[in-house]
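Model it.
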Amino acid sequence: MKKTYSKATRKISDEILVEKIQLGNDKDFNILSQRYKTKLIRYIFNFTKNIESAEDILQNTLIKTHKNINRFDLSKKFSPWIYRIAHNETMTYLNKETKNRKVLSLDNDGQIEDDIFSQKDIESLSMNSWFKKELQDEIQVFIKKLPEKYSSIIYMKFIEDLSYQEISESLNIPINTVRTQVSRAKKQLLKIILSEQIK
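Modeled.
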């Protein structure tokens, strides 16, 4: 049975919840993780294109968040911190997958196949109605066609609605770099959308 939380609980800021967790109220981590599960798995899936892998990375992210939460600086905002953990875990996974594909490609005439949904993935996705709804959002299809460095930034900005400062802290890059890359990403995204409409 899915847990529900009162309006009063939902109004408590992330940072106050983290402070309570740091003081020993570990049950508050469940509230905190529930706030971010859907957002994080959407973000992770944007890169993995595989629901099982995304769920594994999400679990690793939450485990690492819980393990290191006492190191979180309460003077800062929590969301960029957890996004940075999720991003790092995702990049670690993708780097491993890339190495594995290079090995496997030797049995495939040196070709590395494009990432596509397997039948197993589709069946898994059909059991998650909320996730299926997200996949129907056409703009996310276009975002996935952007280069990796642009897709992560524009996803954070326009899908997760993070500020430039939050993105800067999440990806550990200067805020001016974020602004520049968002601008470039928007231009590339527009080109992709226009090219798809012409087809």
